[in-house]
């Protein structure tokens, strides 16, 4: 049995529930999914600043999960904020949804396009593509110009805008698969895939299945080298609560 803590790094509980439903929809019968979000931080993550501000509170959720004995962790924001720091804190595997989705797409298509939310977030996805060695597979990163929280507004037209970008990716990029560039899109996968006729990969579900596989293989995060636990150190002021313990 695997216990996986799925962390939405923003503070919008309704989005956390959407993410939780997607995660549970693919989890195996022996897997327990608990989804959470920090109490402190941005309501959505749409730029570098949001990512930086969300990371500290997200890491506290990882620390809490580590203390409670979770087997693996999923960071459910497409920017994968604080991912390597989370791996320092955790014993079990920590999977970012962008990393999971891109790797999954590379297994089933020679080219994929990312369809994300706002244009300014494209550069964040571009950095991840390079960092994860996905340059050869990623044809293009597309934005549908929809704010993250508007994904929950049925009157926003978000689905149609996302669908249009997916169809452009097929026609203009030669994409054989679509990677959805936001955890808040997790509930759109099946409908989009049926509408556009090629594989659509949501990072939340991909990350859950990868986490299950790593737990099943008995693999944990290496504590040799840079992913060793942070050493004890004094932190001052408001950040004293984040100080690593021995």
Automatic annotation (TrEMBL):
InterPro entries: Asp/Glu/hydantoin_racemase (IPR015942), Hydantoin_racemase-like (IPR052186), Iso_Racemase_Enz_sf (IPR053714). Belongs to the HyuE racemase family. This is Allantoin racemase. It comes from Thalassolituus maritimus.
